[in-house]
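Now read this:
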Amino acid sequence: MTAMRTAIQLTAESGTWPDLVTYVTEAERLGVDHCWVAEAWGGDAATPIAALAQHTDRMTFGSGVFQVGARSAANTAMTALTLQRITDGRFSLGLGASGPQVIEGLHGVPFTRPLTRMRETIKVVRMAEAGEKLILDGTQVRLPLPGGEGKALRLSLLPGDIPLAIYIASLSPRMLALTGEVADGWLGTSFVPEGAQPSIDALAEGAARSGRTLADLDLCQGAEVAFAKDDNHLTAMVAARKPGLAFSLGGMGSASTNFYNAAYTRQGFAKEAAESQALWLAGRRDAAAASIPDAMVLATTLLGNESQVADRLALWRDVGISHIRLYPAGDTLDERLATLGRALDLVRGLGSLQPTDGP
C-alpha cells in the first residue's frame, strides 16, 4: 500500500514570521511532504508560500485555499502560475467556494452559483496553463467582457515542465462530484471517517464522469492532533475544543447556508449539529459548545494516547485518505514540533498495519 503523504497547514498570521519559517523548515526536516497555507479573512496565502519556498528544498506548497470569489479567474491563474515558477514546480492550487459571509461580507461579490464559478475558474486556469487566449462565455466568468473594448489575451507567463495540480475544498455532494470530475485532489475538512461513505461516493461519481476512478485523486483530509497523558487530560482537551466546533456549526456561514453544519449532518451528527447551531444563532454560545457531545469532537479530531490516535489514523487510511494535514497542538513552537514528530511516527507506522474492512 502506498504511504500516506503528510502535510501541515498554517496561515500568514500563525505566529511571528521567524517562528513560521522555523516551523516549516523543521517540519521539512522531520519529513513532512507538503505545506498548505490558508486564506480566510486574514493574511493572503500567496505571499507566505512564495517566501517559505525559498527556505525549503524538498517540501511542496499549496494554497489551502484561494477563494474563487476573491480574485478574478484570470488573476487566480496568474497567481498560480507565478507561484509555480517561484517554487520551481512545488506548488499546488487549492480552490474553495467559501461562503456568503466571506465572499459577500468581505469581498463584496455575490455568493451565487459557486459550483459554476468553480468550474469556470478552473477552465480559465487550464487555458492559461496551456498558453491559450482566455476566452470563456460562461455564466459567472465571461472573457473578454461582452460589449467592452478589450480583446482576449493570453498570459505572457508560461508554466514550467511540471503540470499544475488543482485541488478543490469541497463539502457538499455536488461540489464533491465536481472535485472528482475536474480536480487532481480533494481538500476536505470536518471529516468523520465512520460517516465518510457519502463523500467518497460523490467523489467517485464525479471521477466516473471524466473516465477516472478514485485512484486518480489525491484525497487530503486534515485534523488537529494532540496526545493525552491520561483520561482526565483527554477529557479536558475535548472540552477545550467544543467552542471551536460550535463556531463551525453555528458561525461559519449563515442560518441557511453553513456547509460545515451540513457536512456533519451527513456524517451522522444531524441532531447535534442542529441543536448547537440553534443555540449559537440565539446568542447562547456557551450553551452551543456545551451541547456538543464528546464523541463528536473525538470523531473529527486525532486526540488521545498514541494507541488511540493510531487507531483513528488507520480508519482514515482504510476509507482511502492518501494525504493527511496535521494540525499539531502545543502552547509553544517546540511543543507543536514535538507533537508533529510523534504524529509522523504514527503515520509511518501505518504501513506495518493491515487494512481492516473499513468503518
The longest strand covers residues 218-227. The chain has two domains: 5-226+305-352, 229-303.
